[in-house]
Amino acid sequence: MALSTIPFSGLGADASKQGVNFRNLIINGDMSIAQRGTSVSSITSSGYRTMDRWNFATDLGTWTMSQETDVPTGQGFAKSLKLDCTTANASPSAGNFLVLEQKIEGQMLQHLKKGTSNAESLTMSFWVKSSKTGTYICELLDTDNSRQISKAYTINSANTWEKKTLTYEGDTTGAFTNDNGESLRIDFWLGAGSTFTGGTLSTTWTATSNGDRVAGSVNLADSTANDWYITGVQLEVGTSASDFEFLPYDVNRTRCLRYYEKLEFTSAYDTIFGGWVRNGSDMGAVWQYETIKRANPTIGLSADNTYRINTASGDHTNQSSGTSNTTKTRTQLGFARSASLTSGQAGYINMENGNGNAYFTADAEL
Fold first, then answer.
1. Predicted model pTM
2. Among 216, 231, 257, residue at a domain's last position
3. Could you tell me if 239 and 156 lie in one domain?
4. Please, are residues 299 and 361 in contact by the beta-carbon 8 Å criterion?
C-alpha cells in the first residue's frame, strides 16, 4: 500500500498526536533548538539571541536570555526559554517595549481563511512561570493589514509552572498575503510604556491602535528579582487546545534551518570546505546549505585569520574572506592571500590552529 493511502488507523491510535498533522503554527515551541547559543547576557536591544525563531524585541531594562532545563513536571518538555532581568527600569519611557515574539510567513497561514466569512478561530496554549505574578498580554498582530487582537492571562503563583490557554476569534477583515514575507506576529508582551498601555485592551480584532495593545500589563523590568520562563507554545486552528505537538528533533531543526543556519568548527585543523584556486591569490569554495532558505540569506563569517588555505603548493594563512552569488540554496565563498597560490589547483580550507572557532551563518529570518 502506498504511504499516501495509509489511514491514521494504520499508523496507530496516537498517530494524530505524533507530529503528522503539523497543526502547530509556532516553530520551536518546545525551545529545543538553539543554534546561536544557549545563553546571552547584557541584552539591551532587539534581536534573535538564543532559541531559534524567537526574537527578543526590547529597549526596556537589561536582560539575560537563556535555554534552561527547568520545565513543567511530567509534560514531556526538556527545555524552556528564560528571561532574567539584570538591570531594572521601573519607570518606562512612553515608547519603551519588552516583547518575546515569533513572526510567521503569509504562505503558512492561508488555511486560516482570514479576511473571509469563514475565518478560523485560533487557540494559543503555553506553559509559563515567573517570579512576578499579575496580568500579562499575548497579542496577535496582522502586519499585512495593520490589525491586532490582544488577550490577557494571569500568572497566579510565583515561581510555579502554569498552563495558559487563550482563544482568538477568526478575523473576517484583511487577508494574509500569500508569500514568504511576515504576515502574523505573535507577541508575548512583558512590559511597555504608556504609548502601548494608555488605552483599553483590544480583545477583538481591530485596526491597530498602539494604546490598546498592552493595556493592563505588568512591567517585568521593574526589578532585578524578576524572571520569566516559557515552553510548550502552540498556536492552532480551533477554539480549544490540544496536547502539545511534539515533532522529532530532526524535523524541528530542519524547520528552523529555513530561517537560520550555523555551520561551526571547533577543533584545530578541522576541514571546512573543498575548493579550487581561481587565481594566484584566491581560493573559491561553495557552501551548500542543509535546507533551502526562506529568502536569499545574509551570510556571516568568523574572523579572516580563523581559516587556512591548503593546496599542493603548500599551506597558507588566510588574509581575507568574502561571499558572492548568494541564493536560497548556496553561497560562493572566497579565501584570499596576497600571493603564492597556483591557479587551477584543487585544495581545501581548514581551521587555523589557535585562532578561535570558525563559523558560517546564513540568516533569512523575518
1. 0.93
2. 257
3. yes
4. yes
